Amino acid sequence: MSVRTRVAIIGAGPAGLLLSHLLDRQGIESVVIDARGREEIETTIRAGILEQGTVEILTETGASDRVRTAGQRHEGIELRFEGEGHRVDFAGTVGRAVWLYPQHEVLKDLVAARLAAGQDLRFHVTAERVEDAGTDRPRIIAKDADGHRVEIEAEVVVGADGSRSVAREAVTGSYGGYFREYPFAWFGILCEAPPSAGELIYSNSPDGFALISQRSPEVQRMYFQCDPDADTGAYSEAQLWDILQSRVPGTTLKEGRIFQRDVLRFRSFVAHEMRRGRVVIVGDAAHTVPPTGAKGMNLAVADVVLLTDALRALLHDGDETLFDAFPDTARERIWKAQHFSWWMTNMLHLQPGAGDFDRLRQIGELRTVVESGAGRAYLAEAYTGWPLDGARLDG
Ligand code: PHB
Prior knowledge:
Strand order of the largest sheet: 7-6-15-16-17-14-18-21
CATH architecture of the domain at 2-73 and 100-178 and 269-350: 3-Layer(bba) Sandwich
Largest sheet: 8 strands, mixed
Radius of gyration: 21 Å
Oligomer: single chain
Helix content: 25-40%
Shape: globular
CATH class of the domain at 2-73 and 100-178 and 269-350: Alpha Beta
CATH superfamily of the domain at 2-73 and 100-178 and 269-350: FAD/NAD(P)-binding domain
CATH topology of the domain at 2-73 and 100-178 and 269-350: FAD/NAD(P)-binding domain
Distance between the termini: 52 Å
Strand content: 25-35%
Bound molecules: P-hydroxybenzoic acid
């Protein structure tokens, strides 16, 4: 089967679905394929924090109203160390906020909006490779659920297909990129319990990091630093609660049945290239951040907002300027987010083999941040997200 469209998108995650939504608003037709089914896309548990700019894009373009009604606005986080909590007040320092609204809820909203708009959105269609990047008719070669070949020819192909991207090879020639692996991971749980705190707690403890996050009044998400090879089945519920509790001294966690466990690997990655000819990669296909800064999905949204402007100029006006500049423009924010995620990670986690000097230096770093207006403002600015229009917060 052969299909033609203007923009062919691999991946029905936040980047791919939002791109098709924003393009549609510019009158640009697209086809979106994903190897997964709708059910899997809409139920896989991922991140939970949306930057203010992400929420504005979702609501102002009609992609999601539920983020404002079902999501929770958070105006700060707590950094906890040496048994004491220190609030970083986003609203008070930078006049911005974030929303706790799980990624799979964003995906439900986007899938519903795309299907209602008549979007050509194909589940269980697996991209195998991208061809002819150097021409103005690049193509996706894919297979449907029955193993039949599907070819999608377009003016531009966009790989929004996550960290195991198939499109990346057509762009970077190999899997070339800047890479950093961390010697720890997060053990994540979902539990049936009331919230233990009103805002997220990022805790540096002598035994390692923990994050107390939330999902709803009845369901909570929590993480603790673990070995990358940790086995999710190796702990009893009581052991998990003991570990979590010991990592947030000063707070009594509200415990409940743990119904999901997973281990999140920590990696930083930026592809050497984001575009080759008429093929572009965005979101996790182009970069990965460790979850400590809550930047992953937000960075994907920022890529797509920029790319929409570039594609409008290219496909409406034949103007290639923004499309050519896209990788360099996107990279500025990507590296700021890489730095922030790396900084939060290193400030809060216990490095294997760390001695007293390293631990006390970390406490000094945390104090530098929380006891300084400038320090808290930097954290608040980065966490709530730099403006999407490229404006600077200080004017
Ligand atoms: C989450 O709730 O899953 C979450 C929140 C903040 C992070 C990472 C994950 O930095």
